[in-house]
Amino acid sequence: MKTSDFYYDLPPELIAQTPLEQRDESRLLCLDKATGEWSHRHFYELPNLLRPGDCLILNNSRVLPARLLGQRLPGGGACELLLLQDKGDKVWECLVRPGKHLRQGARVSFGNGELTAEIAEVLPDGNRLVRFDYEGIFLEVLERLGKMPLPPYIKEELQDQERYQTVYSKINGSAAAPTAGLHFTPELLEKIAAKGIGIGYVTLHVGLGTFRPVKEDEIEQHDMHSEYCTIPQETADLINRTKASGGRVICIGTTSCRTVESWAGEDGSMTAAGGWTNIYIYPGYRFKVMDALVTNFHLPESTLIMLVSALAGREHTLAAYKEAVLERYRFFSFGDAMFIS
């Protein structure tokens, strides 16, 4: 298939720049994956669309305030580091700007010297290995000095950093939010649980590769990025019970989908697991576990709209996206959602 097969026209003003005041008042486009029929709801109506015996699988990864703004030493020129992956021993793989001034051996300072760093190595892809120096606990230093690494299409400053976290975020490690979960409130989760719907958690630390465009003409030639994910035993058990009793496994977001599909057996059985996944889901893929998906609206020609198309069909997906544009839905990370069932 061609990458261009997954293009759609999106007016720039429909890219949501800020979150809604109330998380669950986002709109929800419900799409029947078999017929292509759709209906318009709001996210707070989700409990009415679920059935006792279903289960929701949510990604509890928490976004690191991984964007650091500092000065080069000596001289004080501005620079920016974006933490991607912890390599251990105070070394992180990072994106840096300006690259031409941050060669091996270059030193930088953040927060008036509370945090300093040295470029240890320039990697073949242009990323840097950076060795940090600080007192105390690194995550606490980051909470003080770091900013949320918002996607490049969001130009507005985020006033409340917690609005780029899900209310159930727990385990630090993501460079971007699992955005389908941003619509949930504690009250909505309680209402869902009270209806007899299981709630299970997985962890997938979202990497910036999720925003990397597909540059190849043929989608099969795209090299998928790797991300670390885990499925605890209790979540594996919940999925197996749900399947055995005829309930639906409903993933909240493409990250939850990629996690369960990475570790599921060919027969759909789930076991506790953990490790790196570079699973690439596009039309033709046979889902082993996931029956339905809650997800935001994704960028044209992205691997994420390809995943949605694998579930709902490319024609149904693009028709639903066209409807969302006509109805002035809000798109991308702080935008509205779809429920594909």
Supply database-style keywords:
alpha/beta; nine-stranded mixed beta sheet; 7 helices; Thrombin, subunit H; 341 residues; QueA-like
Fold and architecture overview:
By secondary structure, the chain is of the alpha/beta class. It folds into 2 domains: 3-63 and 160-340, QueA-like; 67-145, QueA-like (Thrombin, subunit H, Beta Barrel), CATH 2.40.10.240. Helices cover 19% and strands 28% of the residues. The protein contains 7 helices and 17 strands. The chain has helices spanning 46-49, 138-145, 186-194, 233-244, 254-263, 303-312, 314-326; strands at 27-31, 38-42, 55-59, 61-63, 67-73, 78-88, 91-97, 107-110, 115-122, 128-134, 171-174, 198-204, 227-231, 249-252, 273-277, 292-296, 337-340. The strands form 3 sheets. Strands 2-1-17-16-14-3-12-13-15 form a 9-stranded mixed beta sheet. The chain has a 6-stranded antiparallel β-barrel with strand order 5-6-7-10-9-8. A hairpin with a 6-residue loop joins strand 1 (27-31) and strand 2 (38-42). Helix 6 (303-312) crosses helix 7 (314-326). The radius of gyration is 21 Å and the shape is globular. The two termini are 24 Å apart.
Helices and strands, with pairings:
Elements: E1 27-31, E2 38-42, H1 46-49, E3 55-59, E4 61-63, E5 67-73, E6 78-88, E7 91-97, E8 107-110, E9 115-122, E10 128-134, H2 138-145, E11 171-174, H3 186-194, E12 198-204, E13 227-231, H4 233-244, E14 249-252, H5 254-263, E15 273-277, E16 292-296, H6 303-312, H7 314-326, E17 337-340
Parallel strand pairs: 1-17, 3-12, 3-14, 4-11, 14-16
Antiparallel strand pairs: 1-2, 5-6, 5-8, 6-7, 7-10, 8-9, 9-10, 12-13, 13-15, 16-17
Helix pairs in contact: 6-7
